Amino acid sequence: MLQQEEKGTVEAPAQTPASRWAVSAGWEGALYIALLGLALAMRLWDLGGRALHHDESLHAVYSWYLATGRGYRHDPMMHGPFQFHANALIFFLFGDSDFTARLLYVLFGTALVGLPWLLRRQMGTAGALCASVLLAFSPTLLYFSRFARNDILMAVWAVLLVVCTWRYLEEKRPLYLYAFSAVLALAFATNETAYFIAVLLGGFLAFRAWRDLRDWLLARKGLRQFGEAGTLLLVLATLTLPLWSALVALLPGLAPSLANPDPSQGAVGLPRGGGWYVAIVLLAGAFGVSVAVGTFWHWRRWLACAVVFYAIWLTLYTTVFTNPFGVFSGAWQSLGYWMAQQGVARGGQPWYYYFVVGWTYEFLPFLLALVGVATLWKAPPFTRFLAYWLVGSFILYTWASEKMPWIMVNLAFPLALLGGQVLGRLVEAVPWRRAWESGAVLGMALVPLALVVGYRLLFLAPPRGAMGPLWVLVWVGLFLAVGGMAGVFAFRVGGKAGGALLAWGGVGLLGLLTLSAGWRATYRNGDVPYELLVYTQSAPDIPRIARDIQHIAEATGQKESLRILVDGADGFAWPWVWYLRRFEEAGYPDLTFSPLSRPVEASVVLVNGSNIAQARQALGEGFVEARRYIHRWWHPETYRLASPRVFLAGLKDRQVWRRALDYWLYRKMGTPLGHIDAYLFYRADLLRAIP
Predict the structure, then answer these.
(1) What is the pLDDT averaged over residues 331-359?
(2) What is the tens place of the pLDDT at every residue in 309-319?
(3) Which whole-number Å values give the CA distances from 110 to 158, 293, 523, 526, in the listed order?
(4) Residue 473 needs a FRET pair 20 to 30 A away by CA distance; which of 82, 314, 352, 505 works?
């Protein structure tokens, strides 16, 4: 799949055909600036309007603690430390709010849109610009660019690593080695998916450098004689080798002592007992091997890469050198924790989960990427690399037991890059001026109409009785007429260009449906789980109640001293810890294990529905039950019910197709949303005190 690297040779960059489509540097820059401005506006619009998800509130609260001087200690349950430091800086500069809690992710999501500009040489001018368009309007990337999780940050680091890799392969400048080391450190300090990125990059580099590796193993060549791919592989391997040390816990019988899987026995992912000594020796040994190999290769250059990498990595994991244990938690527990979670399989999704989510939102780049994979035999090297990255990502994330919608980000951006490359080829295949002057573009415009007619013919049942056959005949005739006219117009510019014009008609229709899917998921249903991207989401009731509590606190003059009790059962403390962060007397006991007893000193009480009976008895007549509200709700996930037999039978059932398309197009659902409720109580005399 990937072109092999011969000794002493570097592949020439792909050239953009200029005969049919070209744009001046000034116009190209203007298009990128306009696209970035639009992407930023889309990501900023009503940014604070959606209720914070459980995970978002965790990241926001611990960032706020760091910003307000309460410190931060790395915990792999919340992934790497980068986002907490970056969010704390934003809070320090702009204050803390729902808006600023998501601002970091907006900035990174916008930056992601512009990164193909750095790959113009490999993708071509049109391909890079088309990829930026797909990145800007991708429903998945748009939604999670406005979501306080670090998945969108990882997408930026991954693309930057690709940029550094290809720049170094083509230009051989040490600057790209140092940049590669810096981005690699940031990736490992952001999320454990960095291990998958390292595997993908390492596999690609090893394939290109296989001759170097073979000759080194046979003692025919020294490390200093490695080519560009071998050099990058050596830097990647030596810098990250200590971070892979916890893999030894996968050996039979070693997991309990080297990467504790049982939270009742201590911190998950850390060693137990004598395992501490083994872990420390392994880490020290791996670091020693890294230093030895790196200095033997090129000590000055490797030392510069190591200083860049570890300066960033150590600063972040030790919280600017205030948490020395962060060295061990980052180097060992990060991987140990998530290896232990592999058995938990959080989310419990089926193996085909990412295909379901991907087809629901990323159908346009999905289809384009399939075309790209199917035509790899005539594709340039970078296109083959993108196909390798995409297929490898699907394999790795499908294999991983934890499957969540935000992980789809790691698949959406390679889909967009490969899809953009295919779109770029379509752009270059059409002589646009001649197509306009000859009227061939009318063929492109008629394609969506033909597809709509075809949809109506296939999925809308004809009327009963004698008119049924005539109805079918009329719609078949209309489909053939519109499709035939589209072909007649399009092929005025020739066979290949006409086919590309017809393909653009389909792309245009799917592009409109993509805009619709992105708008629904991001702005209309952002915290309503009609969408597969919205996973076990805090309901809109929560920020509304938080505003009511704030209003009562101000109106009664109690302000931050208002006493609030939130039932912490089943994780109900979150996202309330964020929304009530300024209230000094807010408490979060688990009422399942610590039931309420009189007198209840709090003035506001929020109770998990599972504890409502004992809470009502304890609160008595001194409290007013203000309302029942939805705390958390989720999609019914009916796709889980599809056994192979049911799935195959459904392929022949028009009604099954109709229901699937009703959801795909309109989000019509035949199953109610799942939810868990809670109850809000106010002290009666508190309400009487409101002017």
Answers:
(1) 87
(2) 999 999 999 99
(3) 15, 39, 17, 19
(4) 505
